Amino acid sequence: WSLPDSADCSWRTPCTADDYMLQYGPCVQGERSVQSVVAPGAHCYADAATYTPPAARQERCDSCSAAGYFEDGDGECVACGGGTYLDRSAEGGPRCVPAPPGRFAPSVVSAFYGQQSEMPAEFSTFCTGSCSATGWEARSDRVDSGTHHAGELDAVLVRDVDMALAGYLMFDYRVVGGSEADGLELYVSGVRDAFLVYHPSRGGEDDGGEDGLGAWHTALVRLGHGSWQLAWNYHQSESSSSSSSLPGKVEMRHVVIQNARGGAAQGTLPCAAGSYSSGGQAECTPCPQGTHASSAGSAACVPCGENEAPRPPVPDAAFGLLGAVSCDQCGQHTHTAAGAAECALNDDSEADPPACGFSPAAGVTYDLSPLARSDEMYGPVLDSRNHAYFLNVCSRQHSNHSCFDGDGEPIPSFACQVTSVGRGEDLGHVMGFEALDEAPAEGVSVRDGLVVHYTGGSRGLQLCQNRMRQTTVHFRCVPTAGVGAPVPHSPVENPPCSYHFGWDSLYACPLCTADDYVRVPGECVNGRQQVSYRPREQPLRCHGGVPQPQPVEQDCREQPTVPCPAGQYADVAQTPVVCVPAPVGHYAVGGGFLLERWTGLAAYGFEPTSWRADATLQNLHSPQDASDLVLKVSFAKAGFVEFDYKVHGQGELASFQFEADGHTVLADVHSTNLLYATYRHPVREAGAHVFVWRFRGGSAPADDQHRERGALLSRLLVVGQKEADTVPTPCPAGQYSSQEGASSCDQCGHNTYSGEGARQCQPCAASQWSERGAASCRPRRACTLDTDFVVVYDECDAQSGTQARLYVPTDPAVCDVSSFEVPALAPVPCPVCARRGDHLSAQSNRCEACPLGSYRDLQVSAADEHACVATPAGSTALPALLLFDSNQGRTFELDGDASTTCTGDCGTEAWRFQGDRADSGVHGGGELDSFMEAQIEFAYAGSVRFEYRFAGEREDVRADVYLDGEPVDGFTPARKLLSRVELEEEDKEAEDHEAEKKQQQQQQQQQQQQQQQQQEADTKNEVRTHDQIWHAVSLPVPAGTHRFALNYHQEASSVASDTAGLQLRNLLLEGVSGAGAFQLHACKDGHVSAVGDVTCTACVAGTIPNPEHSQCKACSTGMVSFNTASTVCSACPAGTVSDSRHTSCILDQCKLTTSSGVHYDLSSVGQSMSLANMDIGLCNQVSCELGTAAVCHKERNFGRSITSVQESVSDNTVVLVYGHGAPCTTSLTAPLRSTTVRLQCVSDESVNAAPTILSDDECALELQWKALAGCRLCTDADYVEERSECKSGNRVVQQARQTLCNGPLFRNSVTESCHIEFEFPWWAVAVIGVAVLLLIVVVVVVCVRNRKLSHSYELLANSNPPVMGDFDLGDDEL
Predict the structure, then answer these.
(1) DSSP alpha helix (H) spans, 46-119
(2) Better-predicted residue by pLDDT, 862 or 457
(3) Cα gap 1140→884, rounded to integer Å
(4) Which of 238, 651, 704, 1157 could form a disulfide with 974 if both were Cys (CB 3.0 to 4.6 A apart)?
(5) Is residue 768 exposed (0-12), middle (13-18) or buried (19+ Cβ within 10 Å)?
(6) Residue 869 and residue 849: Cα distance in Å, rounded?
(7) Could you check whether the bond before residue 829 is cis, i.e. omega within 30 degrees of 0?
(8) 1364 phi and psi, to 5 degrees?
(9) How far apart are CA 660 and CA 786, in angstroms?
(10) Could you tell me if 473 and 488 are in contact, meaning their C-beta atoms sit under 8 angstroms apart?
């Protein structure tokens, strides 16, 4: 043998059992022959020695063995069809009979049952690859894939079948010969079916079969309703053997296709629900529209009743698309007559309503047909359980490839659900409508949208309590959303089997009508006026319908002669001119202007000024220095000027005034207490008028403690400038006017917006938000747990004794809550009483405040819920109220004396009180003050404590605390970004403070509460950045009724924030009336308390607390405490003693002994004396501020206690320092005034008897006092003894002072007797001695001269005689 195109032949081998096949003879009179023959293509020869095949035999056969066929009298096979079926039990033998009513006769297609020499016409075959035959071949009662040689090939057998209803394909097959890689594949409509068979293994118990060629296997494949193509493919691999063994192939027989058209029927089946048969039908007829068949086997369909419509047919897995099986009630606002196919809108709707729409009121018609889809549904919309939802607004029929029932059939419905396992559910196929203002929503109108209900969905059994599923879609008119898309509500399913969605869309707006456009006349110029038409709302809240009219021109009068009141304008196109109301979306002030955006001031008559508009143009600010704002207006009639203003000053440093025509009509406004004030000045006469706004004392912020001083204007209304407005003014963006005749516009609320000329504000889309007065919406940012959620504590569960906690978004929310996964919080034990200082009264069984002098001890309360513990000695427990409790979520309790207000560019109303915190609200970008205030009665001196932080991104913000209208010093309110070092230091300081606080309260806190707090901190997992640190504040408050206020202030900015600027928590009011105590504090330094005392008492000056801090004890002798609440006694300087009250160090009887032992006596200067602007009492103190003082200078206490004594030997001065006077300034850390007295020793007591001032400033005074009191006291060494002369037998003996010291000149004077003796006093002797000496000198001089004269005479005598006439000597001269 050889293959085609072979170059040589191969030797045949002896045939084996695998090379033989059975050959069947024709069926004659119920018998046929069967013999074994060598299979075609076998490469062998018969050899009895190798294998002997079975002998030929006869077997029974049936020429009409196929189902639904029988043999007639002529021996022909007859098929039962056309609504008949084979009845083998009929009288007279088998015959075809008609199917009865309510039943049909499905046909069966069969093949390869009897002898056939050629392939049936319904089958086609081909082969690709190394084929030796053209394809499959018919062989008697079977068909095989043909005999081929080695090589890869595919032999395919194909049959098309049209299934009247679902059925089965059955056939027998076996694989003969070939290799293990060869096998049979079945394809259904070109897609490989799950059925796939390979060559069966050899040697099994089924091998051999009836002819020894292998066992037969039966295949069963389900076929659905419709047309299919069946393809059997025998695949032979490349590795198939080319030996002399039997070539590989597959054999197939007894092919049966149940319920296929074109065959013969062998029985009947009942018609499925939704179809009927009047009898003799091969297939059932679907119920026509308007009718239904609720059960199987129906002979006819029943019409639906009034206000009912047939339930849309669902394709049956067996029968395909049938008619309705039931009728559903029409949806809301729809109806039908009996037997109608669809529900229609009610008769009260418009005459020609849209095909998919609703008219809830006259002039309001919705048309949803632009949202209809003919291809795919909208979706998938996913919920938190990963269920997918699909919606189709106006049609149940679609080519949806996602929503199938359990049988794989598409679900005809307006809404369906596909679970996570792929199963679809009908969520409603009956459409109904509802006006939006009928739904449970607040502040909506009939034009804001509509609600569409889809009812009659698949029935839910256990979960839905046998109710049918239904869907509600809230369509909301959002002109900017376009088509939009459905979004799930949270949760989607609530209650079970009721599904809810929202849909923002332009096409959820009504159709446009002529009423949606406003006639707007223009200015009258040269007798002509253009009248235009603009949308009544911006953006236009309608679609389709009536288009916007084109502008027109008309005649008019240029100047109105008729005065029109506010809310009306003069229609100058009419003759005569009449006043007409301003249309909706507009306003008219009555002949003037309204200024709310401070730009283009010159056009209104303002002179150039240094006043400035802020970034938002909403306010006009005064400058830092003094300046005037001048407006000159000419009035056509009597009117008025009205403006809103706010003034922030500090005391009387700044003032605001308003002048009209040179007269001050609003004088010296120093502050408006954060509020806007309104002032109206009447203008009684027409003509020119001048108005001046004046502010003096303006300043920029000097430091973090003080705001700038200034005034601002936010609104200016001038009426009377002209007789009437000639055109209405459209409302600015962010405002609206819903009624005709408006004189002003209203501001849009939170989460709404408007364009210019709006008659109402539009809601933001679900993914957006807005503050009040917004012109547009902003996208919601991603949520953060710390800033956008608050912890709320639910009511206590009495059964479990626990209290549920949950995170709740702040209201209104500004972040995308729907996409944020909120963590769960573990429940906590229920508190016995809601307020921490309350206990459960055993008498009333109600929570009451703990009595004064006791407190609620949490450790004791764990064992005794009624217990209040007496306050121990050395401690205080003030009655207190804790608000915004971060551990209990206690909210602020507003009463008649508490309020919250926002002025300026406010978004939310003011502060928001929610759960465990409060915040200043979310606002726009303009200037604002948002404050909360409350009048609180403090029964005791206590404190206001709270924690705050700036949570937004803006830096131009601050917070201020006010007590009784005055800003509190010491509170650092301005926001600043901390450096990392500062942050770490602040963190460490906060941690140290917290650790100290916990240590002080450790013995009073319950262990369970500590665990709760720790769990809370762990659960919140707050991210602490330099913007998110909570700062602790404690402000002392004296007893009495006080008004406490906390204000958040922001400057104007072009950027608005989407986070609350200031957050507050743990607001603790200690010392308030009507509350109980729950916190125990140790008495402050220098304070004491006894058991059961409410407060601690400060020890007065001169005393200090005992070790137990239960009472005060006096300082020891020589020790003093100068101030109240002193903790230690101080020793007086050397030489001084403590006074009787131990409050000052003084001189003992005005005497002083220094550390060196030197004594002084200041009595002469120590007494009180008054000088100019000064009273001094070094020993006896004088009256002054703070009681008494040693020196009172200019009525100020410059010292009351000696703090230092010093000596200066060089200048004989003793220095006394008097300290502990009054503070130098009002600052709490200011030093105390003191006086230095320099006493200088002088001998003359009359010199400088009063002190002189050496230096004088606010804190220190230095005096110099020259006096004998500045000399040390004299001692014995300073005196010598003196005796007087004896007179009359007596003389005085005394001690005389010989040095400069403070003592008498003489002392210890005594008189003693004496004898009288002549004796010269020493001075007389001295005089005589001097006289004698002088006498001797004179004698000597005379003698010497006489000797010279004698000698001269001798010479004269011996010379010539003189001429006597030359001179004349007298006797004396001689």
Answers:
(1) none
(2) 457
(3) 52
(4) 704
(5) buried
(6) 12
(7) no
(8) -75, -15
(9) 53
(10) no
Report the alpha-carbon angle 18-21-27, nearest 5. 160
pLDDT tens-place string over residues 218-248: 888 888 778 888 999 998 887 665 443 556 7
For residues 329-349, average pLDDT: 73
Specify the DSSP element, H or E, that contains 899. Answer: strand 898-904
Tokens found for residue 765: 């889309």
Asked if 884 and 1064 touch (Cβ cutoff 8 Å), the reply is: yes
Structure token pair of residue 677: 């004030």
Q: How far is CA 1322 from CA 127, 755, 1232, 1326, in A?
A: 178, 128, 65, 6
Sign of CA dihedral 673, 676, 677, 681: positive
If you average pLDDT over every residue of the chain, what do you get?
81
DSSP assignment of 719-762 equals: E-SSSS-SSPEEPPTTEE--STT-SS-EEP-TTEE--TTBSSPE
Q: Three-state SS across 537-603?
A: CCCCCCECCCCCCCCEEEECCCCCCCCCCCCEEEECCCCCCEEEECCCCEECCCCEEEECCCCCHHH
Could you give the CA distance from residue 760 to residue 584 in angstroms, rounded to a whole number? Answer: 9
Tell me the sheet residues that pair with 176.
Answer: 249
Report the pLDDT averaged over residues 1051-1057. 73
* Contact by Cβ (8 Å): 919, 811: no
Spatial distance between the Cα atoms of 414 and 364, rounded to a whole number of angstroms: 24
* Nearest to 669, CA basis, from 714, 709, 609: 709
Q: What pLDDT is recorded for position 77? A: 72
pLDDT digits 0-9 by tens, 837-852: 888 888 888 888 999 9
Residue appearing with tokens 């706004």: 693
**How many residues belong to the chain?**
1374
Distance CA(1052)–CA(384), nearest Å, equals: 42
Find out whether 1032 and 928 touch, Cβ atoms under 8 Å.
no
Bridge partners, 735 (sequence order): 747
Q: Mind listing the pLDDT tens digit for each residue in 447-492?
A: 889 999 998 888 876 677 778 889 999 998 888 889 999 999 888 8
Q: What is the pTM of this model?
A: 0.54
φ and ψ at 984, to 5 degrees?
-65, -40
Confidence of residue 1324 (pLDDT cuts 50, 70, 90): confident
